[in-house]
Structures are given as structure tokens and as C-alpha cells.
Amino acid sequence: MRTAYSVETVRAAERELMARLPEGTLMQRAAAGLAAVCVRLLPRVYGSRVVLLVGPGDNGGDTLYAGAKLARRGAGVTAVAMDPERVHAGGLAALRAAGGRLEAAVPGRADLVLDGLVGIGGRGALRPAAAALVERIPAGAVVVAVDLPSGVDADTGEVAGAAVAADVTVTFGAYKPGLLIDPGASRAGALHLVDIGLGEVLPAPEAEALQHAGVAGLLPEPTPSSDKYRRGVLGVVAGSARYPGAAVLAVAGALRGGAGAVRYVGPPAVADAVLARYPETLIGTGRVQAWVVGPGLGDEGGPEVREALAQPVPVLVDADGLRGLDPGELRARAAPTLLTPHAGEAAALLGVARETVEAGRLEAVRGLAERYGAVTLLKGSTTLIAPAGPGPVRVNPTGTPWLATAGSGDVLSGLAGSLLAAGLPAVDAGSVAAYLHGLAARLTGGPLLAHQVAEALPRAWREVARRH
Ligand SMILES: NC(=O)C1=CN([C@@H]2O[C@H](COP(=O)(O)OP(=O)(O)OC[C@H]3O[C@@H](n4cnc5c(N)ncnc54)[C@H](O)[C@@H]3O)[C@@H](O)[C@H]2O)[C@@H](O)CC1
Ligand SMILES: [K+]
Question: Is pLDDT above 70 for 415?
Fold first, then answer.
């Protein structure tokens, strides 16, 4: 599990640790880790051209000390300050002593650029002096963000104006949520965590991302004593005369998600379409361990949605099922509810603009989970899963932009429903589903069709299970 901590938590941990260590120790650890990554990125340190973009705070200090280490190994290091009156004095002295220079303008060519403008002390959009330096980053240079790409909000991943687009981010002590959540995540490039000793003083994380090992541990593999009922029967209320395909795709995701059986409830013509593609499907109501309601219902299916929500089993509500949801009704449910909106649906549920959700995904998913008392999975460029109560938000690390295609959400809802029926808690069902779905899409490659993602799920499942 990759864990991420807010600025407030990181600062508190740093204070606690600094009180026990000689002054400057953490910055030296950070700079040493940063320089080590830079050395690995450069084909040859001696003779390479390194540019440091240096802000007024300790982020600039880390950068100057790391630059000094590179200069000592023979790199030509040029620092450019955002504000020449405010530069970390110790860092600048170290750089000069090692043969580096402070200059007024960003050189036109560089092999490596270190972005040390702002770190966790950054607030709001980059100021013009910083944005101007970002604009002058020479084309072709490898860009390393120090702690986080300047212009990305460390806590939320929001980008309010100009921001550095890094190839690599070297972050100190702990990952920050903004490095895992878009739009910030897509500016961070490959992530390197430098251990500065914070681990022992960090509390529970604010966000976390599953990795292969964690997913493997959650997959509901059948045992010799399993039968179809113990493996879980999922009921699917989906599809309509207008959107029959949504039912087929939700059932596809459910069957490929390992459900013991899938029961389809909907118009006879749609049931025929489902059976034609998946003769394994049971048709009509009956006992189930979980429901998926909503994909492709259009204006139909209201009563079935209510009926499912009235039952004491986990219910996943997606797409058209999300319209007109009553927070009171959901909060009163004893069994888990999992909501799976995309940004547009989340915006409608929250009564805000879609852009607001897209720019502030973490706040939106937390807000929905709290308002509806339901685990909420917000689909998008980084899918987020918020628990109904306190606890870390899960950030999905898999996926590809090709998943923005018709029907991919239907497959995801069937898959997550399948995992709910198998008995996974809703946060795990949502996050394991998002993980496998994103991995299946990557294995498929693009341009992809939603049904191909469903068909690639067994491969994704095996890839995760095989390695652990
Ligand atoms: N606190 C610690 O124990 C450690 C801190 N470290 C480094 O220190 C950084 C935090 O240092 P600071 O607290 O000095 O803060 P930063 O260096 O991140 O930034 C604060 C400075 O940037 C300016 N600033 C804020 N928002 C801005 C914006 N939007 N545009 C332009 N300038 C802006 C502020 O006026 C302030 O001068 C970390 O990110 C990390 O790189 C590391 O050395 C490890 C240890
Ligand atoms: K930075």
C-alpha cells in the first residue's frame, strides 16, 4: 500500500522528528536522496548541465544543497532564484563553495532541471515570478520536481494556474495526496520517496493507493469447498429499451468479476440480449448477496432501485440510479451502499458545476460520502474511493485515458458488484474493482471497447494473483 499524508500531518511529524535531531539534519537527508536520484537520471554527471529553479523557502534549500553535491561531482550547476533577495543562505553558500553559480536568467539549454520553487509551503496559484521561470524550462531537459511539482496543491492535487510538468518527483518523508490525485498526479511523473526518518512518527494516512500485493490479498479466490452461492450471487438491475447494452456490459463485468452467479432483472427484450451474449445469466428476481442498480435505466427502473435499497444486502448505485437519491434513505440503510458517479453525476448530486468536481476531486468524493453516508467511488482520471465515515481515501493507481469510452462504467459497476456479492467490504470492493478494471484496460491497450475490458479482467486478475 502506498500511503499519503497531508501537509499538516507531515509538518507535525517533521517537528517531532526535528526536535530530536541536530539542526539541518532533515534537509541534508532530503538533499542527499534528491542528489542520488539525479545521479541515476544523468547518463554522466561530470560535464552535465544542471539548472536549479530556486524558490525562497526550504524547498529551494533542498535544491541548492543537492545542486552542490552534483557540482562537486563535476556537473555545471546554475541556480536561478525566483526572488534573488530571498534565497536559502546555507544552500547558496554550499552551491558556491562547490563551484556552482547564481544567475539572473534560465540558461537556454540543460540536461537536468530541478524544480525547487515551492514545496509543501506553496499556497494557491504560482506567483508570476515563479510561473515565468517555469515557462523558461529548456525543452529536452529531464525535469525533477523537488518534493512536489511547483503549482500542484500538495493536499488535493489541484492546479490553480501554471504548474511544473515533471518527469520525476523526488518527495521527502511521505507521499502527499496531490502526487497521487489528478490533475496533480499527471504533473508528477515517476515518484521516488526519500526516507528521511518520518515513518516512525507518522499517524494514519489521509490517502492510500493499493498496489499488486494489496489487491492480491483481497481477491476472493474460490476454495475447494466453494459453491456458486457461497461465491456470491449478484443481482443486476440495468438496461432499458433505449440502453440495452448497459445491461449486457454490467453483466459482463459481473461474470468476469468472479461472481458465483449473476441474476438479471429488467425488461424481457433486454434480458434476451443479455442471454444471447451470456447464457450463464439467471433471469428474474430471487435471492442475491448484493445488487447493482442503475446502468442504462434511463427513466425506467425507479421501483426496482427502491426495492433493492430496501433489502438488507450491499447495493451499488450507478448512473441513472443516482438520480434523485435521498440522503436520508441511504443513511438509514444498515447494509453498505456504494455510489459510483462520474464527475457529471457527482456534480448533480452535490449541486455544483462539473468543473468544480474535476478541479477538486478529493473534496467532492469526501463530500458525497459524508452527505449520503455511503462509500463513494468517483470515476475519472484518478478514480477515488471515499469511506462512508472517517479513514483514508483510496486512490486508484491503474487505468488509462482510453477508459473514457461508452460502457466502461457499466463494466466497472458489474465488477464491483461481483466483489460486494463475494463479501468484500464496500471500500475494498470499489478499490479492487477500479484497480482490476484499470489494469485490464492497460492490458487491452487503446482504442478499446468496454466489452474488451470485461474480457481482459481474468488476465488482470491472474497478473495480480500470480505475482503474490
Ligand atoms: N520542514 C522540514 O522538516 C523539511 C522540509 N523540507 C523541504 O522544505 C519544504 C517546505 O519548506 P517551506 O516551509 O520553507 O516552504 P516552501 O519552500 O515549500 O515554500 C514557501 C515559500 O514559497 C513562497 N510561496 C508560497 N506560495 C507560493 C506561490 N503560490 N507562488 C510562489 N511562491 C510561493 C512563500 O512565500 C515562501 O517563501 C518541503 O517541501 C521540503 O522540500 C525538507 O528539507 C525536509 C525537511
Ligand atoms: K517543487
Answer: yes
